[in-house]
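Subject: RNA polymerase sigma factor structure
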Amino acid sequence: MQTVTFQPENRFGTFNAIVKVYERKLNYHIRRYVRDPEDARDVTQDALLKIWQGLPNFRGDSQLFSWMYRIATHEALNFLRRQKHQVGIPADTELMENRPVFADVDTTWNGEEVTIWLKQAIDALPEKQQMVFRLRYFKELPYEEIATQTGTSVGALKANYHLAVQKVERFILSRRNDF
């Protein structure tokens, strides 16, 4: 895998290398949050613009990709917040908070149904829990890496992930028992 090293004396060269090496990865990451491909491309461009503007201030306290990943994550979350406000949906909707948990569930589940329910459950989580759940569950990133990318403490991430897992489980179990 090709990596880019920040060279303060060559900001243009560094940025061109960033675009060449990381644009697709950043877009893929943003697509995990922003479902529409055109919107994701726009958010990716916004993230790249923020990266360009922030390059002179990059101190090298973290790896360049972690810094860019964090910017891309923030841009995606900001886009989602703006979308929710335009549609009039509260930003922290808790759809499943009071749903019962069922212990006696038929275990002959259809894989396609569970996949749909999982997506619905994740989409219903608050934004921070969605982000932590996706990074930990799907990308299998360690809490320390997620903390670096999000600027959140490991303890807070563990709490968010634990809550997200409980909500996802309750959602899927309640869906299964609705049929």
